[in-house]
């Protein structure tokens, strides 16, 4: 089983990606994000995206109920269904779902978060975000077994049946672990992990658990979360994780041929 | 098998509806619309909804690609997932999908339509709307068989893999026919078919195919389409169709107990 995650940053080549995805023969679960479009549509609706920094320095999006509804529109509506359209156009019988459908991923909502604003600690309430605690692969296995390609997106489901914003890379990790995937491919707008974030030629081609700490120290911004999620995936049995570029032709084939950063045990 | 359609007009009591839906024991496919919210979000995004009248007097929404993307956001995103959340909160393991997923409903897009604007005939191009020609129940049957409640919404899939706006009542009819449903329940913001559209006490409690022409003549606006779709459903083998009110407590139980307008052969 292959788990493929496509990020949601700007500048990705969706057409090339779907062309290549349509050629994959191995049973696959396809997971996507939607961050850039989320920001764009939020602003269009007059809701300024609110990014907050927690006390341990982690940046995240504050998701009040209004923002969560925009998330449903962008991730589960526009992006998910446009990807399904693109796959159907290529003859792939895709089924677009979110992790709340069939209780695929459930977790705990953290309604209040401690953040730093202008250097001052502050408690923000009304957040619809949380972390995944359980994965139920029944629906995904049912779909893959019947020959469909599941196209999966956040949010996940809170303990009280409410949607919660969860990190897309962590969702991909949890799904890959729960399915016992051989490989988890994580695509974004970078060639992989870079030794120098300003230099795309400084690609780190391979990381093992032994030099994971070093890799984590090298990683900047969102890549830090990705490295953590990849380590977690490998430690919990996923064969290998590949970080690769979604801005190129044949991105999946290239990743499987060795492009990008490969993480192994 | 029960097929339940919930309209998308304003003023419906979603909480009461979901409370009642959670009590249904018969295998069910749940279909929803989203018209009022579609208009609301379109306007919020600065896209004025464009309703056009065809030469034979039928009113419809002109759906250019930008409008179609809003439809994906509202129907497949916000409304579909809020309904899934509401059902999950009540312990029902719902799975929200659109008719493009798994190629549930496919049809022909009519890219150009002849309309009357200010009494003058005009050809409008770039419409993403069409009519359903084929239904594949494989995915719905798979989900229902595994104990999930499918929550289904337009759009459907055009011949070239593009999403097309289709009428929700017609989608419900096609699904009920293809599944050989015993009953199709159609809920909206009216007690059923009214002899006098201004008088909610003038409910027509029962129609048979024999007096369908009379009922069709009585029906105004959207109800005309509903009566046509119901006739079609009955003629093609659905046991009975019920038009009922979604603004009341226990709407589904009441409809099954005889409230609303029952259409039989």
TrEMBL record, chains A, B:
Residues 2-244 form the Aspartate/glutamate/uridylate kinase domain. The record marks 5, 226 as: Transition state stabilizer. GO terms for biological process: L-arginine biosynthetic process; lysine biosynthetic process via aminoadipic acid. Substrate binds at residues 61, 165. Pfam families: AA_kinase. Its EC number is 2.7.2.17. Its main location: cytoplasm. It is an enzyme of class 2 (transferase). InterPro entries: AceGlu_kinase-like_sf, AcgluKinase_fam, Asp/Glu/Uridylate_kinase, Glu/AcGlu_kinase, LysZ. GO terms for cellular component: cytoplasm. It catalyses: [amino-group carrier protein]-C-terminal-N-(1,4-dicarboxybutan-1-yl)-L-glutamine + ATP = [amino-group carrier protein]-C-terminal-N-(1-carboxy-5-phosphooxy-5-oxopentan-1-yl)-L-glutamine + ADP. Gene3D superfamilies: Acetylglutamate kinase-like. GO terms for molecular function: acetylglutamate kinase activity; ATP binding. Pathway: Amino-acid biosynthesis; L-lysine biosynthesis via AAA pathway; L-lysine from L-alpha-aminoadipate (Thermus route): step 2/5. It is found in: Cytoplasm. The keyword Protein biosynthesis does not apply. Keywords: Amino-acid biosynthesis, ATP-binding, Cytoplasm, Kinase, Lysine biosynthesis, Nucleotide-binding, Transferase. HAMAP family: LysZ (MF_02082). Belongs to the acetylglutamate kinase family. LysZ subfamily. Catalyzes the phosphorylation of LysW-gamma-alpha-aminoadipate. This is Putative [LysW]-aminoadipate kinase. It comes from uncultured Thermomicrobiales bacterium.
């Amino acid at each position: 089983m292959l788990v493929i995650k496509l990020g949601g940053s700007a500048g990705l080549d969706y057409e090339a990606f779907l062309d290549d995805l349509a050629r994959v023969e191995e049973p696959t679960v396809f997971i996507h994000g939607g961050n850039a479009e989320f920001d764009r549509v939020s602003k269009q609706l007059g809701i300024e995206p609110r990014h907050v920094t927690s006390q341990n320095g982690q940046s995240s999006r504050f998701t009040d109920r209004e923002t969560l509804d925009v998330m449903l529109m962008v991730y589960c509506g526009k992006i998910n269904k446009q990807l399904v359209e693109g796959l159907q156009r290529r003859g792939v019988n895709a089924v677009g779902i979110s992790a709340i459908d069939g209780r695929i991923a459930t977790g705990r909502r953290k309604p209040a978060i401690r953040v730093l604003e202008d250097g001052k600690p502050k408690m923000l309430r009304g957040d619809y975000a949380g972390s995944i605690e359980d994965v139920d692969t029944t629906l995904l296995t049912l779909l893959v077994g019947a020959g469909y390609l599941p196209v999966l997106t956040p949010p996940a489901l809170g303990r009280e049946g409410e949607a919660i914003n969860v990190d897309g890379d962590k969702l991909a990790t949890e799904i890959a672990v729960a399915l016992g995937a051989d490989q988890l491919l994580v695509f974004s707008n970078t060639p992989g992990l870079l030794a120098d974030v300003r230099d795309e030629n400084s690609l780190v081609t391979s990381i093992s658990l032994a030099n994971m700490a070093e890799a984590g120290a090298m990683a900047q911004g969102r890549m830090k979360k990705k490295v953590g999620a990849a380590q977690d995936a490998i430690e919990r049995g996923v064969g290998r994780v590949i970080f690769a570029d979604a801005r190129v032709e044949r991105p999946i084939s290239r990743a499987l041929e060795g492009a990008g950063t490969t993480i192994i045990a």
